[in-house]
From TrEMBL:
Organism, as annotated: Coemansia erecta
A Pfam family it matches: Translin
Biological-process GO terms, alphabetical: RNA metabolic process
GO function terms (MF aspect): RNA binding; sequence-specific DNA binding; single-stranded DNA binding
InterPro entries recorded: Translin, Translin_C, Translin_fam, Translin_N, Translin_sf
PANTHER family in alphabetical order: TRANSLIN AND TRANSLIN ASSOCIATED PROTEIN X
Taxonomic lineage of the native organism: Eukaryota, Fungi, Fungi incertae sedis, Zoopagomycota, Kickxellomycotina
Subcellular location: Cytoplasm; Nucleus
Annotated protein name in UniProt: Translin-1
Any one annotated GO CC term: nucleus
Family affiliation: Belongs to the translin family.
Keywords: Cytoplasm, DNA-binding, Nucleus, RNA-binding
Gene: tsn1
Presence of the UniProt keyword Nucleus in the record: yes
Length: 221
């Protein structure tokens, strides 16, 4: 019997193991940068709306680093192995999308488009949902990022009042309602994304309660 077959098989196993560890390291570095970016963006909850531009400008270096970390990850992945290893970085990509969506809202007061995601992070959002021919951000990862925005908006509505920006919750409420209406057009399956979408109503309720309290106290018309 030719034992070379088993030698070759072991080589393949070693290559797969090396790739796995390389991806693991790349994702760890990406998560680390995302945590730093999140910490800096959190400061937006402690300042009036007029000062948020300073916060979003301060995270530009971190987004450049996130883009670089994703580029390093992309270099490890071939299209044929994309879905084989996707679970390893999917959560990190959801986090990166959430950071981008929140930043775009703070800067422009609108929802981040797939084009914005590509500009900030590098890979395209796979809106066609077709065959993967390159490293992409899946539709689910993008939508998880959008869902995360509702939690940020509910916090922002409360904290805006704390810093004396009583007009901001109305703006947040209008945007959140429009975004929620858009989400209701999606026929989501009963998975994690669906369960997260179901929790949005609690964030909407929290924003509405802030609006109600302000009006009861005569602080808004």
């Amino acid at each position: 019997m030719d034992v070379q077959l088993f030698v070759d098989l072991q080589d393949r196993l070693d290559e797969a193991s090396t790739l796995f560890e390389s991806i693991k390291t790349a994702v760890k570095d990406l998560n680390k940068t995302c945590r730093l970016t999140s910490a800096k963006l959190a400061k937006a909850h402690a300042v009036p709306q007029a000062q948020t531009s300073e916060i979003t400008d301060s995270v530009s270096p971190q987004f450049a680093e996130i883009k670089q970390k994703i580029s390093e990850l992309r270099s490890l992945i071939q299209p044929v192995t994309f879905y084989k290893y996707n679970d390893m970085w999917s959560y990190a990509m959801q986090t990166a999308c959430a950071l981008t969506v929140f930043t775009v809202y703070l800067k422009h007061g609108r929802l981040a488009s797939p084009e914005d995601i590509e500009e900030y992070l590098g890979p395209k959002v796979n809106v066609s949902n077709g065959e993967v021919t390159e490293f992409v951000i899946t539709i689910e990862e993008y939508l998880h990022g959008v869902v995360s925005l509702f939690g940020e908006l509910s916090r922002l509505a409360v904290n805006a009042v704390i810093v004396g920006d009583v007009g901001r919750p109305l703006e947040i409420s209008r945007f959140a309602s429009e975004l929620y209406s858009g989400f209701q057009l999606l026929n989501l399956k009963n998975d994690m994304l669906r369960r997260r979408f179901d929790s949005i109503k609690y964030d909407i309720k929290k924003i509405e309660e802030v609006q109600y309290d302000l009006r009861v106290r005569g602080l808004t018309s």
